[in-house]
Amino acid sequence: MSAEAHRYAVFGHPIAHSLSPDIHAAFAAQLGIALDYRALDVAPGAFNDAVRTFFAEGGRGANVTLPHKTVALALADVRTEAATRVGAANTLTRRDDGGIEAHNTDGSGFVRDVTERHGFDLRGHDALLLGAGGAARAVAWALMDAGVQTLTIVNRTPERADEIADAIGEPGRCYTRYWDGLDGESFNLVVNATAIGVAGGSFDLPTSILKDHSTCYDLSYGAAAAAFKGWSLAAGVRPDWFRDGLGMLVEQAADAFERWHGQRPDTDPVYRELRQRV
């Protein structure tokens, strides 16, 4: 790597599985940018010091993944609206004054993938969001901003779903329901933001929640999306109307890349290359 390459990184724990170094390397090669981007496995107790050291030693930007997104927001000197309302940051940038800015690209990456890559116009549709973690919070705000007619949020711990709906503050459009209280409801889009595909469990949901031509989307990808895909197809969703989160991963990375370098890469060839691997 050239000595002129600027330093970037992704922080997580664990992090060995991360595709971020490959994605950013592909973006940089596409645009002729010298880049040193590394995956850094940092335990929660060491995160703050590791990030501050990284930026003090010349780091320009960092992506942040589990379990550090909430702490990343707290350590920043400046927080964008997107990061503040989600309550988590996945993108950190060194400012000209030496401070650290926190931003969140999860919601924008999700919407770009759904609307631009997969051609699903979110406006006027009824959406169901399963889960209430950090990624779910980002997606909830993004769905509202994109113009869904209604957003219903369910979570095994209903209080966490209520917190998101209360923060959004549009009771005429954004609702919560109990996980086992969805009978009689139906949706054009069902988004899985739970950890069921990783932690185990089942999607014990009534198939009647799906309308004709409903789309199902899992924020995870690869093996982690298999359980929700299985439920979706068994419930009658066409295979080409099920989407996983690989495209969201690429798009949120592109949003961070553009924030750092002032140029937006072409995400389609990177997505196609990764799709062959995942």
From TrEMBL:
Q: Which residues form the active site?
A: 69
Instruction: Say yes or no: keyword Oxidoreductase present.
Output: yes
Q: Which residues belong to any copy of the SDH C-terminal domain?
A: 245-275
Amino acids binding shikimate: 18-20, 65, 90, 106, 221, 252
| Top-level class of the enzyme under EC nomenclature | oxidoreductase
Pathway terms, separated by semicolons: Metabolic intermediate biosynthesis; chorismate biosynthesis; chorismate from D-erythrose 4-phosphate and phosphoenolpyruvate: step 4/7
Q: Where are the transmembrane segments?
A: none
Q: What is its EC number?
A: 1.1.1.25
Short name of any one Pfam family annotated for the protein: Shikimate_dh_N
Any idea where the Quinate/shikimate 5-dehydrogenase/glutamyl-tRNA reductase domain is?
Answer: 121-170
> What residue stretches are annotated with the Shikimate dehydrogenase substrate binding N-terminal domain?
10-92
Q: Name one GO molecular function term.
A: shikimate 3-dehydrogenase (NADP+) activity
Question: Keywords of this protein's UniProt record, alphabetized?
Answer: Amino-acid biosynthesis, Aromatic amino acid biosynthesis, NADP, Oxidoreductase
| Catalysed reactions, semicolon-separated | shikimate + NADP(+) = 3-dehydroshikimate + NADPH + H(+)
Functionally, this protein is described as follows: Involved in the biosynthesis of the chorismate, which leads to the biosynthesis of aromatic amino acids. Catalyzes the reversible NADPH linked reduction of 3-dehydroshikimate (DHSA) to yield shikimate (SA).
HAMAP family this protein is in?
Shikimate_DH_AroE
How this chain assembles, per its entry, is:
Homodimer.
Would you identify the family this protein belongs to, as annotated? Belongs to the shikimate dehydrogenase family.
UniProt cross-references to NCBIfam families, sorted A to Z: aroE, PRK00258.1-2
Designated name of the protein? Shikimate dehydrogenase (NADP(+))
The organism encoding this protein is Luteibacter sahnii
The gene name on file is aroE
